[in-house]
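I'll show one example:
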Amino acid sequence: MIDVKNMRDEMYEELTRNILPFWMNKMTDREHGGFYGRITGTEELMPEAEKGAILNARILWTFSAAYRLLKKEEYLETATRAKRYLIDHFYDKEYGGVYWSLDYKGQPLDTKKQIYALGFAIYGLSEYHRATGDQEALDYAIRLFESIEEHSFDTKKNGYCEALSREWGEMADMRLSAKDENERKTMNTHLHILEPYANLYRVWKDPRLEKQLRNLIGLFTTKILNIKTGHLELFFNDDWQSKYRIISYGHDIEASWLIHEAALMLGDQGLLDKVEPLVEYIAAAADEGLAPDGAMIYETFVDKKKTDTDRHWWVQAENVVGHLNLYQHFDDGVGLKKAHDCWRFIKQHLIDREHGEWHWSVRADGTVNTTDDKAGFWKCPYHNGRMCMEVIERFA
């Protein structure tokens, strides 16, 4: 018999004794403000690494949520530090939006407006307001919502474009990262607009926000979801045509619970009746990526007949939450077992008991990946921190 309370207790320990202390103790930049940009996979601090908007916004979300849940003053202190740095350094006071990155001293480095980054800034700021009632954080979250709606939303063909220049002009290269395809619309950015819009809606019941949140759920269920396979398509042109056959198992399982959360937030039974069967369908498709060791593999390039079987840290965290969501809302006992098996894998292979935090990934042969960052532009406390907090909150 799987004991959910025991999992919850273990995750409380993991959050409060490993994940959060790592970011407070090792990543706070007391000389130049904010947080350092990088610690390598071999534990080397890079004090002059660029500082990414994603990392700062995710630290803001994580510590705001931790303070809201656990009421520890040191979490509020770290969240406030992240909020100040985001508003004072990342926010573009001339054109609005947030810069993609700063140099280590806090000066703008890459000034493009990646909509994904604006989404995470809303996520962090809305959570800070939710935790503290701080009006400034809410005001900036609303400003960023207005910027996304004004500059990124496609009023003719629906959806949101990937990226724009500092002055909100068109860009030739809109990719989120080097591994992405250069298309105007992507699943990933839409997922990370859905997520902050749902969080902003918790604290700001604006009718336009509600309309756009409903619209995003509709985009996922009618445009992004491949109804034949249950998988989400990843890259689209302006007309919502997907030319790429790539399966991202982690995004599938993450989307299953984030779409469900957004629908639950709207409190519309008719919408839930439409969405909930699809939530289960997407999660079942994601399970094609489950390995015998309980972990979920990374992705498959269908046309190339190539599969990346690495066990990435963030995929495992979302795998746990997605399956616990099935257990909690659909009474799925097998989902509970899948979450439990993945948590066991995380404890055995991903958590770094010596240096703190989690490793980036474990390769298929069981070796730990120390090539990729321990902390950095993309390696943040949000996926694993959120997993712990979701379990703490859901099964209180």
